[in-house]
């Protein structure tokens, strides 16, 4: 059974903050990216693997494969960071059986229908509805970097209207 030291939603997946800050903070030995599109895209998968520091393994898997692995082996051995690109993929993994106790929300990108809700973090109505469904089952918080305090989702959600 792997120790899951961080479950993060960040549309950039592996980038400077994750490599320089979150890997150091968590002492993770592997990064698991859960994304159906990337799991099929060998070129992009190789780019993310090349961005992973030496000594850290990177797996890119579909939601179905990830949830099956969770149910069968609890993700194997080691210390893992699990990265999701968006709330909908996270929500799907959770609904299919991935147990989440703490969910960190990082950058989710900009776009039509998205509102800036905390620092530079945005949500749209669909994200908001899924997080509202998930919040009773887990602790959800916003946090861009380890130096930033954890901002509780429920406190922010109380101020959001769509």
Explain what you see.
- The chain has 7 helices and 9 strands; from the N terminus they run E-H-E-H-H-E-H-E-H-E-E-E-H-E-E-H.
- With 162 residues, the protein is α/β, with parallel strands linked by helices.
- Strands 3-2-4-1-5-8-9 form a 7-stranded mixed beta sheet. A two-stranded antiparallel sheet has the order 6-7.
- Helix 4 crosses helix 5 (87-96) and helix 5 (87-96) packs parallel to helix 6.
In short:
With 162 residues, the protein is of the alpha/beta class.
State the main characteristics.
162 residues, two-stranded antiparallel sheet, 7 helices, 38% helix, alpha/beta, 7-stranded mixed beta sheet, 25% strand
Rg for CA atoms:
15 Å
The average pLDDT value, as a whole number, equals: 95
Q: What is the string of SSEs from the N terminus onward? A: EHEHHEHEHEEEHEEH
* Structural class by sheet pairing and helices: alpha/beta
Helix share bin: 25-40%
Number of strands: 9
Report the β-strand fraction as a percent range.
15-25%
Helix count from the secondary structure assignment: 7
The backbone outline, from C-alpha atoms, is globular
User: Biggest sheet, strands in spatial order?
Assistant: 3-2-4-1-5-8-9
Largest sheet: 7 strands, mixed
Distance between the first and last residues' Cα: 40 Å
**Unreliable segments (pLDDT under 50, ≥5 consecutive)?**
none
